[in-house]
From TrEMBL:
Record Pfam families: Acetyltransf_3
Sequence segments annotated as region (Disordered): 180-199
GO molecular function: protein N-terminal-serine acetyltransferase activity; protein-N-terminal-alanine acetyltransferase activity
Record field: compositional bias (Basic and acidic residues): 180-196
Protein species of origin: Roridomyces roridus
Protein name per its UniProtKB record: Acyl-CoA N-acyltransferase
Entry-linked InterPro entries: Acyl_CoA_acyltransferase, GNAT_dom, Ribosomal_N-acetyltransferase
Residues covered by the N-acetyltransferase domain: 23-165
Length: 230
């Protein structure tokens, strides 16, 4: 089985490390069991995934279901250095070396690490790698995107705290899995007659962006301040 990151369009470092958190490539043999053990429905309310019941489910759904062999995707395990344990995941998708842009996604922080430094530091580490210039140790991307379900206010606030700016609403941008019965904001109370997927709800997506000129215009310092808070 090919692990994510091995075919990523940019060379992936062994780790991105801060004072409290480090990001390392997600490897099924090392991380799938802990990911499954910390999986619960609340974490996946606004994602196409669901709570995982086995490591095989993690591998088949997350890795083999779309990440392996995809050069635009890199998935990282978020490690809490104080406990040396898996605290969640974060990654990049729709990465384009041609257009120097990528989206931050797969942002999952396990319940016991929520309302701590973990999410902030994981996002900050990834932003530094994405938006810092190669001379500074980064990729020198010009744009980082953040896309989330329009009902996911917590995700929107997390992005805005890290300097992302609201850019727009993509209406009816997602078809939810048939087993998803929420997170559509009531959009699907009246199904469309003749719809090809009548049993699948739909959802709007909010799009936020953080560009290189924002980053160099003060957001880098804003992110560092958030990561260095006591």
């Amino acid at each position: 089985m090919v692990e994510p990151c091995t075919n990523f369009c940019f060379p992936v470092p062994d780790k991105l490390e801060g004072a409290l958190v480090k990001l390392i490539p997600f490897v099924a043999s090392s991380h799938a069991e802990a990911f499954c053990a910390n999986s619960d429905d609340a974490l996946f309310s606004f994602l196409s995934w669901g709570a995982f019941t086995s490591t095989d489910d993690v591998i088949s759904t997350v890795l083999e279901g779309g990440m392996n062999n995809n050069p635009s995707i890199a998935l990282f395990a978020v490690i809490d250095k104080a406990t040396d344990s898996l605290a969640g995941t974060i990654g990049m998708l729709d990465t384009s070396p041609v257009h120097l842009c990528a989206e931050i996604g797969f942002v999952i922080t396990f319940q016991k690490f929520q309302r701590t430094y973990v999410t902030t530091d994981a996002i900050g580490l990834l932003l530094h790698w994405m938006l810092d210039t190669p001379e500074q140790g980064g990729l020198g991307l010009r744009r980082a995107s953040w896309r989330t379900n329009a009902c996911n206010e917590k995700s929107v606030r997390a992005a805005q705290r890290m300097g992302f700016q609201m850019e727009g609403l993509r209406r009816w941008s997602r078809v939810l899995p048939e087993w998803k019965t929420e997170a559509d904001g009531g959009k699907s109370e009246r199904p469309r007659e003749g719809d090809p997927k009548p049993n699948c709800l739909g959802a709007d997506s909010v799009v936020l962006g953080l560009c290189w000129d924002d980053w160099e215009g003060g957001v880098r310092e804003q992110v560092d301040k958030a990561m260095n808070r006591v």
